């Protein structure tokens, strides 16, 4: 039976997994769970409930008797299961730094974006301004990493996939990049033109447009 990936039309974490699987050349079936206009996924898909009964969220990966529900854990599994092409750097220290960058995208950068979800009606409020400022500081940090390299951890890696998708959602919610970080903007262009990234992101943008929602300017084809 083919590998199955359960995602959703606007799932950042699901898109991460889809991109990684495509980069690895995995033959998989993509299952999109139901979506409602209030940004929830109802009714819950039975396989999502079975594999992830506590959080009840995508992504879910099922590969034979392996069933996983966390995007970072799925990254690790895909790297072990399909070691080529590698999406972690080769050296121990380099891999550790790349893993930290992937985690920071999810747990340091993205929480600021989550705060903006409920502040779209008042982007001039103090909490919204603070969240955007925190995103800008993170962009500056990533700009510094790109002084001597094309990708965040040296070679293209899971760290790039994670931060690219987190930034897509940041831009959607009003915390996009500016010309203050030209290297980072160029990095975004390199990552965004990868076939695996376009295969996951372009349908997401078409879905946004079909819902009458804004599509980031840099993703308007």
From TrEMBL:
Gene3D superfamilies named among the record's database cross-references: 1.20.1050.10, Glutaredoxin (3.40.30.10)
Domain GST C-terminal: 91-218
Domain GST N-terminal: 1-86
Name of one Pfam family that matches: GST_N_3
Domain of life: Bacteria
Protein name in UniProt: Glutathione S-transferase family protein
Organism name: Variovorax beijingensis
């Amino acid at each position: 039976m083919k590998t199955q990936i359960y995602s959703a039309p606007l799932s950042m974490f699901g898109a991460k997994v889809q991109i990684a699987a495509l980069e690895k050349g995995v033959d998989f079936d993509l299952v999109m769970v139901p979506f409602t206009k209030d940004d929830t996924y109802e009714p819950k898909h039975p396989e999502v409930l079975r594999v992830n009964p506590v959080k009840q969220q995508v992504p879910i990966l099922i590969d034979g008797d392996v069933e996983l529900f966390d995007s970072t854990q799925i990254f690790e599994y895909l790297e072990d299961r399909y070691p080529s092409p590698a999406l972690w750097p080769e050296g121990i220290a380099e891999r550790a730094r790349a893993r930290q960058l992937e985690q920071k995208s999810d747990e340091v950068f993205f929480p600021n974006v989550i705060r903006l979800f409920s502040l779209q009606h008042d982007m001039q409020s103090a909490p919204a301004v603070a969240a955007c400022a925190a995103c800008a500081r993170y962009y500056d940090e990533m700009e510094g990493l790109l002084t001597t390299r094309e990708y965040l951890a040296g070679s293209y890696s899971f760290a790039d996939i994670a931060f690219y998708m987190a930034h897509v959602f940041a831009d959607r919610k009003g915390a996009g990049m500016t010309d203050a970080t030209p290297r980072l903007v160029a990095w975004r262009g390199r990552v965004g033109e990868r076939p695996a990234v376009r295969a996951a992101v372009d349908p997401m943008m078409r879905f946004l447009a079909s819902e009458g929602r804004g599509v980031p300017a840099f993703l308007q084809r």
